[in-house]
Specification:
Blueprint (H helix, E strand, L loop, with lengths): L3 E10 L4 E7 L4 E6 L4 E6 L1 E3 L2 E8 L7 E3 L1 E4 L2 E4 L10 E3 L7 E6 L8 H4 L3 H12 L8 E4 L11 H8 L15 H12 L3 H7 L4 E3 L14 H8 L4 H20 L2 H5 L2 H13 L3 H13 L8 E5 L2 E6 L6 E2 L4 E2 L3 H10 L6 E6 L7 H17 L1 H15 L8 H15 L9 E6 L5 E8 L5 E6 L9 H10 L5 H10 L8 E9 L4 E7 L2 E10 L3 E9 L3
Helix pairs in contact: 2-5, 3-4, 4-7, 7-10, 9-10, 12-13, 12-16
Protein name: Alkaline phosphatase family protein
InterPro entries: DUF7800, Metallo-depent_PP-like, PhoD-like_MPP, PhoD-like_sf
Pfam family, one: DUF7800
């Protein structure tokens, strides 16, 4: 009998369509069914490196539908599992009359104990939804903005898996090595916790990667890339990481129309049908995506009613050469510029890395970029690069030109220069392992421009790093670093902002609620045995 290895996951949804993603233990025909609602849609699996995947596209659904479903593989019902103790998984399309709720967060370690990483915000959300039914408020979308898996900080369970595959001491030491290792990372993160597995089967999910999905400080600089590619094990690592991300995460971010026209998806399905396994095609694509970032776009944008969500890849599409640096390459920058338009009630820009950092950190990173670029001479440049990698100084502030380009985009939108100004323009980010709200104060715009950060879902900062960041969040801490940046001839930032809520250092999940021209955000943290409790709440547009 065919069995599910991972899934089902509800991925891209719209008002009338939905996508179900699964991994099975053998090639098969996968169907998503509900006889009462006349639902019966199917897809054949494709195979890569001995693993079998299917995406079932469902069309013609009613807006705001709530349809329980079953998954059938080669005629056998494989979902729901018997006696699982959870309500039926549902396909949940978007409702144009009900506003939009997007829950988001980043940085989730799994597995692990409460003593190590605290209570899991995703599991806490699953408990609330599974126990409350229609009596609780459900998110319409779950957006995970990075570090869905930790390929370079392994759990004991992952180390045990690796022990059975390679000899002790074989490089890379204590890290994922290839596609097979990554498949097990995803299984540990999304299958072995029953609550989270159920949550992903019933709440539509979108994702974008951050560094730990591949490796700490991924693409921090040209020097970092050269060092990694000099390692004999790196090719298998990067192709395995990017290839598995494409299958386990990116495929589900695309709309059905985008997936149907995607050349990589077509090539993998064709190779799988003709040779039985498309692993070689996937590896070739993944290697090229790393070496030629402009060959692949991981960013995406979706319009849901009067809201546009833009999800920006701030990792793989970086421009890193001996003489140019950018958070985004030229093609990606043009794409983002084209997506930043008015005419919406709300514009959301999701980036794993916060665009607006605490001022002290922003100035430290802009100073360091100038130093590494030679502002203090050749010796200073070498020291600057060492500081950059040691202190993780590689956010938007460390890419001055990219920061200024995005500022120009959002200010133009907020002033109504690209169509009617939205009520709100919000950056949604994670990465830094604490949560806060920052508001743009200058220049003036019709739109309220904010940075909303929620991190971690489950991986809190330890004490000394927590105190260092708490100090960095104070207003007084910004002055000395701004002075350093000024000495390095870094121009004044084109916008000004201040932190108005937070910082909070607990595990958390945030929910942005959009209704008409109103936008508010709620941060919640799992306490008291793992139940979600309010940590902060604010009205963005008020």
């Amino acid at each position: 009998m065919t069995a599910l290895v991972l899934g089902p996951h509800v991925r891209h949804v719209s008002h009338h369509t939905a996508t179900i993603w699964v991994e099975t233990d053998r090639p098969c025909e996968v169907r998503v069914v509900n006889q009462e609602h006349g639902l019966d849609a199917g897809a054949r699996t494709f195979t890569a490196h001995g693993h079998h995947y299917a995406l079932v596209e469902i069309e013609g659904l009613a807006a705001g539908a709530r349809i329980p479903y079953e998954v059938v593989a080669d005629g056998d019902t494989v979902w729901p599992e018997e006696d699982a103790g959870f309500p039926p998984s549902q396909i949940r399309t978007l409702d144009p009359e009900g506003g939009l709720r997007i829950s988001f967060g980043s940085c989730r370690r799994s597995p692990g104990t409460v003593e190590q990483f605290g209570h899991d915000a995703l599991a806490a959300l699953a408990r609330r939804l599974s126990g409350g039914g229609d009596a609780v408020t459900w998110p319409d979308i779950l957006l995970m903005v990075g570090d869905q898996v930790y390929a370079d900080e392994l759990s004991d369970a992952m180390r045990e898996f690796i022990k059975g595959r390679r000899a002790p001491g074989d490089p890379p030491s204590d890290e994922a090595a290839d596609f097979e290792d990554y498949t097990h990372l995803y299984k540990l993160a999304w299958h072995d916790d029953p609550e989270v597995r159920w949550l992903l089967s019933t709440v539509p999910t979108f994702t974008i990667f951050d560094d730990h999905d591949i490796r700490d400080d991924w693409n921090t600089s040209y020097a970092w890339r050269q060092e990694m590619w000099s390692q004999p094990w790196w090719k298998d690592r990067i192709t395995g990481g990017i290839g598995s991300y494409w299958i386990y995460q990116h495929l589900g971010n695309m709309s059905p129309e985008e997936r149907a026209s995607d050349p990589v998806y077509k090539a993998l399905r064709t190779a799988s049908d003709s040779t039985g396994d498309a692993g070689a095609v996937l590896d070739e694509f993944a290697e090229r995506a790393d070496k030629e970032p402009a060959s692949t776009r991981w960013s995406y944008a979706h319009d849901w009613g009067a809201t546009r969500l833009i999800v920006v890849d701030s990792r793989c599409s970086r421009l890193l050469t001996t003489d140019r640096r950018g958070m985004l390459d030229d093609d990606e920058s043009r794409w983002l510029d084209e997506q930043c338009q008015g005419g919406m009630d709300h514009l959301l820009i999701a980036s794993s890395l916060p665009y607006l950092l605490p001022m002290a950190i922003h100035h430290a990173e802009s100073w360091n970029e100038a130093m590494a670029g030679g502002a203090w001479g050749k010796a200073g440049a070498g020291l600057g690069e060492k500081i950059r990698q040691a202190a993780d100084l590689e956010h938007w502030a460390a890419f001055e030109r990219s920061f200024r380009d995005v500022a120009a985009d959002v200010v133009a939108v907020g002033r109504g220069e690209r169509g009617p100004a939205p009520a709100s323009i919000s950056f949604l980010s994670g990465d830094i392992h604490y949560s806060y709200l920052a508001r743009v104060t200058e220049p003036g715009t019709q739109s309220k421009i904010s940075q909303i950060v929620c991190s971690p879902l489950r991986n809190p900062l330890i004490g000394k790093f927590r105190w260092a960041n708490r100090i960095a969040c104070s207003r007084a801490a910004g002055g000395p670093f701004r002075a350093l940046a000024r000495l390095s001839k870094v121009p004044v930032p084109p916008i000004r902002w201040r932190m108005t809520e937070g910082p909070w250092f607990d595990n958390a999940i945030a929910t942005v609620h959009l209704s008409g021209r109103n936008c508010d955000v709620l941060w919640e943290t799992p306490r008291d045995g793992g139940a979600l409790n309010e940590m902060g709440r604010t009205d963005i547009t008020g």
